[in-house]
Amino acid sequence: MKKIIPICIIGILLCAEFGATALSSTDPKIISENNVGKAEYTHTVFVEVGTATWCSDCPASNTAWHSIYEGGNYNFEYTEMVVDKNTVANARRNQYNQYSFPTSYFDGGQFVYPGTSISAFQNNLNSCGSREVPDLVANLNATWLGSAKIQVDFGIINNDAVSYAGNLRVYIIELQSTQWRDYNGSWYNHAFLDFAFNQTINISVGETYSDSTVWDGATHGYPGISSENIQVILAVFDDSPHQGYSHPPSGSPFWAYYVDETIAATPQSNNTPKKPNPPSGPTSGIANVEYSYSGNTTDPNGDNIYYLFNWGDGSNSGWLGPYPSGTTVEASHVWSYGGIYNVKLKAKDTIDGPWSDPLVVQIAGPDIELQNVKGGFFKVSAEIKNTGDVAVSNVNWNITLRSGVFIGKQTSGLNLTIPANSSVTIKSGLIFGLGSTSIKVEAWIPDGPSTMIQRNGDIFLFLIKVNP
Ligand code: CA
């Protein structure tokens, strides 16, 4: 019996110092990692601090948490929830039934500590860090899109033997607040701004839950934030409720959902993929034959890349991909008509990069050309020539006169067929009037080549003169 007494005394001392928080304090191993001793935890611990600008004890907590974090010896992330200034923070505080200020909530309320002692903070971190947790692996990428917009991409892999249900929260915090000072007039550190994501998740065994969202600071009242001062923290809370107290034992309990995985990231600026070289492939060919073209580029951030070929005839390949940065992509195309085409390539990650310079491709085949636009008595005529060596059909044309006082402003024709290497003359309807005009002659094949000639002319009642 005598041996029990010192244990009880130590227990009472711990309880007195840590309140209700140090019931299962442990002593995890310290490992050396890049010359920094860091506690070897089962997961990165997450701490939410309920604080307020009117609270005279809160600056000590703000300072203490900042110094532990900057010391780099404890594997955790934290945020200060300034509940009297931030309604989202206050709503979160209400889920904890916070009673006194400041109060630190470790891992979703596994431990609750209403105080400012650095050693109590550290001991609670160690206790949370030694808790056995499901085997989840989270990854997180934050991309600064400019104008206070942050794209958050994340995934959680369930490597455990059972499916996982919980709640995923993504916190946007300012490393040093530009919004709120504590009671002593110092800026808050790690001040919570808003949730970028907050919803329940279910992950089957071996599966990954992934999602992407864009958080827009401007629409949440923070248009002036800067990328280097922002941190994004992802925390996964399990769905098993544990009764917790912010003010034990008489206060109202709350349901604590423990944190099983935490990861943080700072927003990186996104650069679009580089301008590709002109596509590689044949520079000449004939219509109705398929040709392949290839190209590649890299993304400065190593992002996956989508590619788009523009075939120069009004069509494109559609976005291809995504492919890892640097991968060569290939696509093929059939031109229906002869002509000179600029084949270009561009790449995007989430934002389009620039077009490449063109590869000029000359395709032999049906093509049309306008020539010999002439005036005369009552009419304008022109020739449409098929310069290819196969017949073209479905040639449409217009002769249009603009301005002037006359009748017969437009004449059109449809579905003209022109044999190979031949011309067909087209003529306007009767033109009658007075004045100067511009004369436009157009010919085109739907989804094919088109051509146009514009001339100035004069109408002398019945004689039409077309200027060269
Ligand atoms: Ca990029």
Topology:
Blueprint: H1 4-18, E1 30-33, E2 36-39, E3 45-51, H2 58-71, E4 76-82, H3 87-95, E5 103-106, E6 111-113, H4 118-129, E7 136-146, E8 149-158, E9 164-181, E10 187-203, E11 208-216, E12 230-238, E13 242-245, E14 253-256, E15 259-265, E16 268-269, E17 284-286, E18 290-295, E19 305-310, E20 320-323, E21 329-334, E22 339-348, E23 359-364, E24 368-374, E25 376-377, E26 381-386, E27 392-402, E28 405-407, E29 410-418, E30 422-427, E31 432-444, E32 450-461, E33 463-466
Parallel strand pairs: 3-4, 7-16, 17-23
Antiparallel strand pairs: 1-2, 3-5, 5-6, 7-8, 8-11, 9-10, 9-12, 12-15, 13-14, 18-21, 19-20, 19-22, 22-23, 24-26, 25-33, 26-30, 27-29, 27-31, 28-31, 31-32, 32-33
Calcium ion (CA) binds at residues 270-271, 299-301, 303, 349.
